[in-house]
Structures are given as structure tokens and as C-alpha cells.
Amino acid sequence: MGNTLTATAFDRYELREELLNALAAKGFDSPMPVQEKVLESENRDGDLVVQARTGSGKTLGFLLPLLNELPRETATPRILVLSPTRELAQQIAGEAEWIGKYMGITTASLVGGMDMERQIKDLRRGSALVVGTPGRTMDHIRRRTLKTDTIQTIVLDEGDTMLDMGFRDDIEAILNTLPDPHRTWLFSATMPDEVASLTKRYLDSPSWITLCHDEDQHEDITHRAYLVPSGKRLEGLVNVLLWENPEMGLIFCHTKAGTVETMERLQEEGFAASALHGDMSQLERNSVMNAFRQGRIPYLVATNVAARGLDVQGVSHVIQIGLPDNLETFVHRSGRTGRAGQEGRNILVLTPREKGRFKAMLRASSMDLKWANVPDVAEIAKAQRGLRESALLGGDEPDQEIQAWADELLDMMAPRDLVARLLESYVNGLPNGYDLRKSLQNELENRRSGRDRGDRFSGRDRNRSPRRNENRGNRSSFRGRAQSIKLSKGRIDQDWSVGRILATVCQALDVDRNEVGNIRMRDNHTEVELGPLAADRMNGNGANKLSKWGLMDGSSQNQERNTKPSQGRRRWER
Questions:
Q1: Number of structural domains found in the chain
Q2: Sorting pLDDT into bands at 50, 70 and 90, what band is 466?
Q3: Domain of 524, in residue numbers
């Protein structure tokens, strides 16, 4: 291979040319701190413990030095990486694929929920790097389809999470099958007692690299706690989302039932949301995760267990509903945002009763967390107005067709009256959230006076049209040819809402929300306007997918029709 490299900060680590070429092809010119520390470690031949956050670049931190030592085209297992979840294991395997592609190194991925025979075939083909979850890896060892006698290095990635998920027995069983000598590298965001115990028992005089401490505040993450009235936590969450306006939000609940309830409520409110919990099949999980990663579903509601090991780029907000089990959990969840130097926001939604208990957790930490009452209707309306003013004043210049239309309208009406009517149409029906100010003030006053008796405030005090969820305008009308489809669910189907239909159509057709126009719910059916790309997908296999999800039957599949775009031509934003 000819030398095609330009000088980068990676050059000083004596990495082989194949790895440097792979880094250059990805545009990586300098290591992240965890990569730098591991590459500079003087004891890489021995055991190693690295405390670094999820999303800090630690995957390349162990792949670069380990692959650097491998002979080209090695076909026997030399490196075994254990990871807590299927998704994280598959991400590590994907990283190994591109960083090792010029070396002829292949990777076997051993995860549950995937075809066992395919994994056996990959192992027989010969793989120098094996990445797996503890349970499935142990299955292969028992079947003798994975032989560990050639393993030189084992990496325990997200060690705290694996132990927290109950994998200790499998991890110890795997460690006990490895030959002597071998080296063990442990990567963990936190160092609870169980991790320390495993380290003491199985690692021999390890070197330590510490880039964070258990209660440290991530410098790229701001922390805020919003107080909401007892009994109105989900209404408070709606207000928080309207106020914070996340681009991509990961919402944590304590239970599976909580994730489903929260997802359904958000869908009712017009937010495209999906749930992630332990009862989902791998196919369902993959579908939800792909939609979330691609931005088609901007809100993912998950249990702590289901989200462990989750590594998704671009999460702008982590939102935690209710009191976390401990400060460690609160900090660990927050690590899903603020990745790769981007700013992130970690939001906690608590009742006044929970505030004191959480403040007690914070006493052992230097974390800078701001407290605020949940934003109210007037505050949200003002913020929404500011967002829309920015969109109007800062957007691209309208095309000639729109400008000509504007001239025609100005000839018919005074400019001020025209702008007023357009603004009224523009903001009509925009959600302003729930009026929670009085309920929260009453509860806070009752607590100060000692008259608090728990969750006394319930019900809905809404500042919105009662039929808001029956129709949804689109973000941008389709000027070209659009297609309207009729779905078999309507208002009489209580499990379906505009938000759920929007989320399902986007997921089934594999399109962004901007490809879905007006959604009109009738008593026994729903009409949905599709943009050009969505229409193409619909005419492909989309109808079959929607049928499987219960949204189309034989009659509704024959109801598709071509329509002109909405005459209002207004832009719609949530």
C-alpha cells in the first residue's frame, strides 16, 4: 500500500499505516483524551482499568492499540470484547470493521436475538476479533463453536453496566476459560463496589487511567430540574418539551408500563414518540432504534434497563421522569447527551415532594444543577412566538412564485391587515401546554406551611382546543403532486391518535416527518397526505407494512388518490 497520508496527531503513536489510512479516510486527525491516554500508557502489555464516560471515544481507545499489534489477516480469535447490549456490541463491531479494513481483519459479532447459524459460520470462517454480549458468548463457548485458547486480550466494555445487568456469572465463567497468560482491559464509566471486586479478583496489578469520577459533572452538559404539580407529571413533561424544544430526546421512565403510558400520552399530544422496553422482540427493538437514530422518531421513551449500553449520536436532551434511584444513575443516564464536544441538556422532572430527597443526593456532589418551576402557558406561548419570528425573519428568500402571490395579496389588502391575518393563520392551533402555575403554587405553599398531604392535584387544565389532536397540519405543504391515503383507524379507535399515526407512518415508510402532510381523523378512518418520497414508498411495500401494523385493510388500500397540495400553503411547526 502506497503512503497516502498527511501528517496528523496520530503519527506520534507509531500506528501502522493501515490504521492511519483508515483514520484519515474518516477525517480523524487527532485523538480524543481517552484514546490519547491509552496509546500513551507504558503498561499496555498488562492489565488496564480505564474510567471514562460513555461516548468519550473509548471504543477506538482500545481498538487502535489492540489492532496495531495484530499480524495482517489474522484468522484465529485473538481479541474478545464483551459488551452489555446487542446494540453496543454491534456498534463496536462496526467500528472495528472500518478501522481494520485495510488490514484484512474480520470481526465476528455474537449477540442474542440474531441468527446463531450465521454467527457459527462467521467463527468458522476465522475472525481475529470477536465482539459479543456475555450471555451469547458463553453459549458459543459451551457449544465449542468459540474456542478461547488463542485469546490474548479480553476487553470488558461498560463494565459497570454489565455487572448491573446481572452478567457477573457469565463474565467470570468466560474469564475462567481464557489461557494464561492473557491480559484484561476493563472500561467503565463508574467504579461501584462490584466493579472494584471483579478488578481485584481477575486483574493482575492493573494500570489505572481515570478521566472522570463517579459524581463528576460532564462539562458539556447542563443540568436542570423542573418542578411539576403532583399528579400532573405527564402534563408537566409536555410543557417541558414545548419549552425546551429538543431536537432529539431520550426520556427515562422507571417501568415498562411508564414507558408505554408516556409514549401514548406524547403521541396524543402530537409528538412522534416510540417506547423501548425489555418485553420487545429484537426485530421491534431494531426498528425503533433505527427510526430514532435516523431522526424519524425524535423522542424515545425507555426504561433504564432497556437503554443500558445505548449509544446514539445527536441526542440533545436526556429527560428523566421522577426521582432517580441514586446519583450514580442520574449521572450515568446524562452521559447519553453532550457527546463528541456537543452541548447537551440533562433534564429532571420532579414533584415538590421529591425535591428534598434529590437535594439530599446532591450533597455528595459538586454538580451545578439549576432549579425551576415548570414553564407555564404564557411562557411557552412567548417562546413559541420567538421561535416562529426567528423562522420567518431568518429563513431563505421565498421563490418567485411565492413573491408573486404576495404581490397579488398586497394589492387586495393593507399590508398590516394582511400580515396580521397571516400570523393568525400561522400560529392558529399551536400548542401552548397546560396551565399548571396555580396548582404548583398551591402545592408549594402547602408544603411550606406543612399542609401537604400528597398527590391532591389531578385532572387536566388545558389551554388548547379540545379537537386539537383530530387534525394535524404539515411542516411544509407539498407544491408538487401529493398522494392521499385512507387508513382504517379513526376517532372511535381509542388506541390510535394523530401522534401515533404520524409515528407509525414515518416508521413504516422509512421517511422523515416532513414527508407526511395533513392528517385528518374521522370517526372510522383517517386521511393522510403523503409527500413524493412517502408516496413512492407507499406504492412500493408501504401498504403491506401498514397492513401488518393494523392501519390498512383491503378496502383502504384501494382508496389511495392523487390530490393537489393544501390550498393554505402555510408552514407548520410544532
A1: 3
A2: very low
A3: 470-563
